[in-house]
Amino acid sequence: MDSILVVNAGSSSVKFQAFALDSDGRLRREIKGQMDGIGSRPRLRASAATGHKVADRVYPIESVPDVSAALMVASAWLREELQLTPLAVGHRVVHGGPDFDRAVLIDHGVVARLERFTMLAPLHQPNNLAPIRSLLAKFPALPQVACFDTAFHRGHDEVADHYAIPFRLHDEGIRRYGFHGLSYEYIAKTLPQIAPEMATARVVVAHLGSGASMCAMHGGRSVESTMGFTALDGLPMGTRTGQIDPGVLLYLMTEKGMSPAELQNFLYRDCGLKGLSGISNDMRELQESNDPRAAFAVDYFVYRVALHAGMLAAALQGLDAFVFTAGIGENSIGIRARIAQRLEWLGVSLDSAENARHARRISRPDSRTPVYIVPTDEELMIAQHTVSLLWNRHSNPKRERAS
C-alpha cells in the first residue's frame, strides 16, 4: 500500500504516523506510533487508527543507539510486517530560519542550510535532521519533505518581525520567527469548519503543552506570536523559561560564571515549570501536588497566558474568539477555567458544564467572545504538505521503495 510516512524526531524518541494515500490524493491515517527510550531501553509502540494496539516491543540498547537507528527499526517494521510502503517521508523541522517560508523537498543542499539554524533550536534541530540524513544516505531517490514550525508566521508585518536592533542584524536573520506553526496552520484550516464566521475573525490560539506558545490570527493568517528568535521566548514551558530580561542572562554569565553552553542547557532544561516548582515539568503532577511551589508554578503559568492574551488581542485590535489546543489546552479542565476567568474583561464567559465535558465550544451561549477546544493535528498538516509537493513535482513521481 502506498503511504506517506510522517516523522517527528526528538532527542530520545521518534514519533511517526503512516497515512494511506488513495488514488484521488486523499489521506487516511493508518498507524500512529513511536520509538522511545533511545539509548536506554528502546521500545516500539504503535496503534491503528481505531486505537487497537499493533505493536509493543522492547529492543536491546545496542540495536537502537540513536535517532537514525530508531527510524530505521520503525520503518522496517512498517514495511515488513504491515506492508506499508513509503511513497515519501514528511518531517517536522522546527526552525526554517529566514530561508524557508513553506515546505520544501529535501536534498543535501537543503540539509546544509538547515544545519545553520541548530543554535537557534538546539533541542530540536539536530534530532529533526538526523533521520533525514540517514534516509538520504540509504534511499537517495525517496522523496523527503521538510515542514517548518516557523513557516506559518513568515507573513508577519515588518513591524512585528523586528527586534529593536540595527537593521544589519535583522538582515542576517536575527528576527522574530514564531513556532508551533504547523499546529496553528491546522487550527486556521479547521476552525472555520466548526464556526464559519471564524474564517475572517480575529482569533487568539493558545497551544499549551510542554512547549507552549500563543498566536494571534486574523482571517486565518498569523499576525503575531509569543515566540520569537528561538523557542525560548513567550510563555513559561515545561523546562523552558519563556520571556526573560536579557540582563538576567548577562548577570548569569558575568556574576555566576556560566559558559554559553551551561546557560543554554539551563534555559532549555532547568527552568519553566520545573524550575519554579522544583518538582516536575508535568502540569498534571503540579496540579495534584500539595507543595506550595507547585501551586505557584501553576499560578504563574495561568497569569502569563492571560497576560500574553491581552498583548495578542492588542495586536489584533480586538478579539472575536479564543481557542485552546495541545496537551494542556485540550485536556486540563482546571487550567482552561482559570485562564478563561482572567479573560472575562475580553468578553469571555465560560460554561463550566461544557468545559467539564471537553465540548468543542466551552463558552456560554451569550459569551461575547466564544471559546473553543480544537485538538491539533500537526502530523496531518505535514502529510498534506508532503502530498502537495509530490503532486507539484510530478504527476506520477518516481519513487524508491524502501526495501
Features:
38% helix; 20% strand; globular; disordered C terminus; eight-stranded mixed β-sheet; 403 residues; Nucleotidyltransferase, domain 5; single chain; 15 helices; five-stranded mixed β-sheet; alpha/beta
Kindly provide the radius of gyration, computed on alpha-carbon positions and rounded to a whole number of angstroms: 21 Å
Number of domains: 2
* Gross morphology: globular
Give the biggest sheet. Answer: 8 strands, mixed
**Poorly predicted tracts of residues:** 395-403
CATH top level class name of the largest domain? Alpha Beta
CATH superfamily of the largest domain: ATPase, nucleotide binding domain
* Count of helical stretches: 15
Q: In sequence order, what are the helices and strands, one letter per element?
A: EEEEEHEEHHEHHHEEEHHHHHEHHHEH
Would you tell me the overall average pLDDT?
Answer: 91
Name of the CATH architecture of the largest domain:
2-Layer Sandwich
Strand order of the largest sheet: 5-4-3-2-1-6-8-7
* DSSP helix fraction: 25-40%
What's the total count of β strands?
13
Task: Describe this entry's structure for a reader.
By secondary structure, the chain is α/β, with parallel strands linked by helices. The protein has 2 domains: 2-148 and 379-393, 2-Layer Sandwich (Nucleotidyltransferase, domain 5); 196-369, Nucleotidyltransferase, domain 5 (2-Layer Sandwich). 38% of the residues lie in helices and 20% in strands. The chain has helices spanning 67-82, 108-115, 125-138, 158-161, 167-171, 181-194, 246-254, 260-269, 272-277, 283-288, 292-316, 326-331, 333-342, 352-356, 378-393; strands at 2-9, 13-21, 27-36, 43-48, 53-58, 85-93, 104-105, 144-148, 202-208, 212-218, 221-225, 321-325, 371-373. The strands form 2 sheets. An 8-stranded mixed sheet has the order 5-4-3-2-1-6-8-7, with helices on both faces. The longest helix has 25 residues, at 292-316. It starts with a strand and ends in a 10-residue tail after the last helix.
